[in-house]
Amino acid sequence: MAGFKEQDTDTSSVNQSAKPEDKKLVTMKEAGRNMKHGLYCDPNKVKIDGRSFFGKMRKSIKTRFLEGFKGTPSALAQTLAEGAATHLIMAKNCYPEFSFKTALDKINSAWKKEISEINLAAEVREWVLSSSGIFLSSDVVKELGLSSMSSERKFNQNLSNIFGRLVDEGILERGTRRGQFRRIEKESEVIDFASADTSRVFDLKWPAPFHLERLVNIYPKNIIMVAGASNAGKTALLLNVVRENMARHKVLYFSSEMGAEELRLRLEKFQDPMSSWRFDARERASNFADAVDPTSINIIDYFELTDNFYQVGGEIKKIFDRLTTGVAIIAIQKKEGQDLGRGGAFTLEKARLYLSMNPGELKVLKGKNWAKPGCNPNNRRFEFKLIDGCKFITA
Fold first, then answer.
1. Peptide bond before residue 302 is cis, with ω within 30 degrees of 0
2. Are strands 361-367 and 351-358 parallel, antiparallel or unpaired?
3. Residue 36 backbone phi and psi in degrees, to 5
4. How many CA atoms lie within 13 A of 136 on its CB side?
5. In angstroms, rounded to a whole number, what is the distance separating the alpha carbons of residues 254 and 285?
6. Taking the CB of residue 278, how many other CB atoms lie within 10 A of it?
7. DSSP labels, 186-249
8. What spatial distance separates the first Cα and last Cα of the chain, rounded to whole Å?
9. Where is mean pLDDT largest: 19-28, 335-344, 375-384?
10. Higher-confidence residue: 145 or 288?
11. 134 and 179 in contact (C-beta within 8 Å)?
12. What pLDDT does 266 receive?
């Protein structure tokens, strides 16, 4: 694709094509009109002025390149050769006539310009198709290492055209800001409901006196929310869940506020041998979806939100999308006396079980899948006392 040499094309048709006598030459305008109406136009019969010819040639080269780009390398080579031969024939019909060498030089020059633009379009397309969520055009420039070219007017115009074509193709949609886009994700996983096993309840145990597994069934890929006021007992409840399930499942515990020393002190309150605590403890405060194990019990203690509370729904969805056969239990702060955590109704949407905790009280705010027909768990309240920061008893 570096260019064409004389031996790359069959020049016999060029030598035989100049000013044919059997039919009248047509102008480029007439040829375009004929092709628009579906009539074949022989390039040997087109009369073209040089400037119009090379403008049209660049557009034709791009079209031919893209056609060949979709096929095999041999198909591409054939497409390029056919394109070069056609352009050499048409160049011969220009007035004044171009020499064979001049035509080759101009074709090579056009190829270099178009291939540069097409390579950019291919790189941008590949980046876009591997992206998700909202991004800026400047993000693409930076990640493709093209920042040095971003001050060039021609480059920015080409980039704008590329994004415009991706929007027209239904691959991207424009955002609310200039240069902001989002890839339209049309892919979706098929739900095989016909072969689903409804008895495949996730074996998740809850500590006494709550025993929530007797009230609500949890299934693979479920989200459980625990909204708690400060010092309501969220961490104590979650560590009890770790203790009840670590013998049967792999458990990942993500803490956003405790280091190793503080976590050990909390575990020592249970008076169990430290060697009996078999779970994976991680320190993390954000982007939990990147770290969750899709097949395990993931306990997040807790979501830290300081502003833009409406975004919590999107973060929960990211975790949901990552899960396969596992579950996630997500703790979140709330104001005492209120039911929902920070983010309000956005925290409620994905949850199959939603618990609201105040000091001395746990409330089942939402239990989607009842464990027993006719036994509604919603708004069920438990009054408790927390002993030594680890043991729950009925008040």
1. yes
2. antiparallel
3. -60, -35
4. 5
5. 8
6. 10
7. --------TT--TT--------TTT-GGGTB---TT-EEEEEE-TTSSHHHHHHHHHHHHTTTS
8. 80
9. 375-384
10. 288
11. no
12. 93
Q: What is the mean pLDDT of residues 325-354?
A: 89
Question: Could you give the CA distance from residue 339 to residue 333 in angstroms, rounded to a whole number?
Answer: 11
Are 214 and 371 spatial neighbours (Cβ–Cβ below 8 Å)?
yes
Sign of CA pseudo-dihedral 206, 209, 212, 214: positive
Q: Measuring CA to CA, which residue among 275, 266, 209 is closest to residue 236?
A: 266
User: Number of C-alpha atoms within 13 angstroms, CB side, residue 180?
Assistant: 6
> pTM score, two decimals?
0.58
Closest by CA position to 316, among listed 336, 337, 298: 298
Helix, strand, or coil here: 17?
helix
Per-residue pLDDT at 12: 44
As a whole number of angstroms, the distance between CA 79 and CA 85 comes to: 10
Q: Which CATH architecture has domain 212-394?
A: 3-Layer(aba) Sandwich (3.40)
For the chain, the structural domain boundaries read: 1-119, 131-186, 212-394
What average pLDDT does the segment 238-267 reach? 94
| CA dist., res. 380 & res. 355, Å (int) | 10
Q: How far apart are CA 124 and CA 179, in angstroms?
A: 14
Can you say whether the dihedral through the CA atoms of 281, 285, 290, 295 is positive or negative?
Answer: positive
Q: What are phi and psi of 52, to 5 degrees?
A: -65, -40
Per-residue pLDDT averaged across 362-369, rounded? 94
Q: Which residues pair with 173 in a beta bridge?
A: 182
* Interval 34-53: pLDDT, tens: 555 555 545 455 444 444 44
Helix (H, G, I), strand (E, B) or coil at 98: coil
Whole-number percent of the chain with pLDDT over 90: 39
Taking the C-alpha atoms of residue 182 and residue 5, their distance in angstroms, rounded to an integer, is 43
Q: How far apart are CA 21 and CA 188, in angstroms?
A: 61
| Buried residues in 338-362 as b, exposed as e (16+ CB within 10 A) | ebbbbbeebbbebbbbbbbbbeeeb
Mean pLDDT of the chain: 78
Most confident of 12-16, 55-59, 163-167: 163-167
Give the per-residue pLDDT at 189: 76
